[in-house]
Amino acid sequence: MSDSEPEHLSSPEEEHIQQDNEYYCFLNVPRDASDADITAAYKRLARTYHPDKHQDPDKRAQAELLFTKLKNAYEVLSDPHKRAIYDCLGKEGLKEEGWAVVPRTKTPREIREEFENLARVREERRLQQRTNPNSRFECRVDATDLFDRYLYDSEYDDLIPSDLPHFEVSRLSLSSSIQAPLTNTDSASLKGSISTSNGQGNGSFTCGYKRINTESSWQEGTVTVGNGLVLDSRFYRRLANRLFINMSGSMQFSNRGLNPAFSASLENHLDRHTVGYLTYSTNLSIYEESDRYLMEEDESGMETTIIRNTENYGLVGRLQLGIPYTYAMAVFTKPFKNKKNHLRVSFKAGTFGAILEYGVEEKITEHSTLGATMEVGYPVGVTVRIKLKRSSQNYIFPFHLSDEIMMQPLFYGTFVPLMAWFTIKKLILEPREAAAKEKERLRRMEANKEKVAEAKREALASCNLMTERFRRIMREEDEKNGLVIVFAIYGLLGSEKGELKKELRDFEAKDFRNDDRFVDISLPLQCCVEDSRLILWEGSKANLPGVWDPAPGEEKFILIRYKYQKSMHQFFCAEEEAIKLPKNSHRISVSGP
User: Fold this and answer.
1) How far apart, in whole angstroms, are the C-alpha atoms of residue 241 and residue 499?
2) Helix or strand or coil: residue 385?
3) Which of 73, 96, 106, 316 has CB 3.0 to 4.6 Å from 23, enough for a Cys bridge?
């Protein structure tokens, strides 16, 4: 039986559509805000930005620009027809040429339905262009000559050749496949494989057809030629809310006779993290001998599997009773905090012997992972397996170190790959990655220099107009021991793990004033405080009045230190998250200024 889990029903990958939240964020309302909420937000900001509120010529000119932006946002969100277009297509859909996409006579519901239809058409076109290529290359190396000398006593050293040990490639295999969607429910697949081992080679070619009947069932058929003709079919169906069945059957036509096979698996989702499988499989041989037909059972077994996956660990338990092997297996995986690497340990014991595996795997780039696994057991000996995965391509290099279990191959097979990896990572990969990130950051800064400058001028003008409102709210909140923003910083504050950078944990507000990576947004946030409460809805905070984006295209965070009921509080989060203050969990043991 294969160690892999039964295949799940999967739907085509959905195309990600970037939502335009600028108008919602500028008014600081959620996307599902009612007309009354939008009108109230408009009136609140109009009291600050209306040109008639300012007598100073400079402030009046600034107010005219910001009030125009406010009026545009309100006109779109208060009109159901325009709002539906904006929700689906963003500001581009509101341009003059964008009206051709959806006629003005259509209702908001009809606009959304047409947008969904257009999205389905785009998805079908994308499916036509996608082939989902997959490939696997394996090169098995026999390196037992490196450690065979340790099998003998030292008195035989003179009899052992002193020349350098030699390595031998004992097996090569290559397989590649593509899956070409024909429609949203039908797809065709092609697969080819070749292999050679100990001077003998073979190959096969497979073509298949898969149809997704409903959201809860699919069926697939394949034809393979190579080592005889093989016909295979698979069927998957949901029986109940948490119960599924996966069945497969095949027939191989060989020179010796027929080889039918059958497998049936029940899949039960026990809870959100746990899945159980019960599988029966059998492989038969039908052949002619002495003018009669005989049928033998080559393999047969009943297997049960429990799989549990959480954010902190993964567990797999398996028990198989059958012919020719009966075994039990347990697998434990543990991801590290950065989610880029994980540890895997497994133990398998049965009538064939016992095998222990342990290894680590690390994500080295966005699409690549590198792993090393040590396999120790009887009768397999000691093998170290190096695996590189690049997107859908897998490169596997097993090095068979010894036929016997010895300390020398165990030690070198475990520590040599680790030391080599850490050396390459620290001396080459990490410096190169850091330099590439810095180069890309500088490139983005230069490309967005004018855009950032314009946004900064607009934000500073907005802050200038909010000064009186800021002082009034500060005075009112201070008098009733309400919510007072001590300082709020927006920008590149977080590490790759999403935590506040270590060098920024002991700081003062003045430390951020002359750094282009950060923006002081204390005044804009204080102006959003109402009745000692601060609520900022999901979306980029760069669209708030008085805020600008210091680093477009990069992940930004917000750090807020505020005083409430004479106690100091601090809050740190990603900019896209919703913010609701105050909370008791934000309290810190730092005295106020």
Assistant:
1) 39
2) strand
3) 73
∠ Cα 140 146 147 (to 5°): 110
- Whose tokens are 């539906």? That residue is 84
Query: What is the amino acid identity at position 92?
Result: E
Q: How far apart are CA 375 and CA 410, in angstroms?
A: 9
Question: Is 589 buried (19+), middle (13-18) or exposed (0-12) by CB count in 10 A?
Answer: exposed
The enclosing H or E element of 408 equals helix 407-424
Q: Is residue 324 reached through a cis peptide bond, with omega within 30 degrees of 0 on the bond before it?
A: yes
Residues 6+ apart with CB under 8 A from 328: 318, 319, 320, 348, 349, 350
Q: What distance in Å separates the CA atoms of residue 429 and residue 448, rounded to the nearest whole number?
A: 28
Closest CA to 219 of 233, 235, 237: 235
Strands 134-142, 393-402: pairing kind? parallel
Q: What pLDDT, on the 0 to 100 scale, is given for residue 374?
A: 94
Average pLDDT for runs of 10 along the chain of length 593: 42 46 87 90 89 85 88 89 80 57 56 66 62 89 79 56 76 92 88 90 94 91 92 94 94 89 95 94 88 86 95 94 93 84 94 94 86 92 93 92 88 88 87 86 82 89 91 93 92 84 69 75 92 90 90 89 92 91 87 45
Q: What is d(CA 495, CA 498) in angstroms, rounded to the nearest whole number?
A: 5
**Segments of 106-167 assigned E as strands:** 134-142
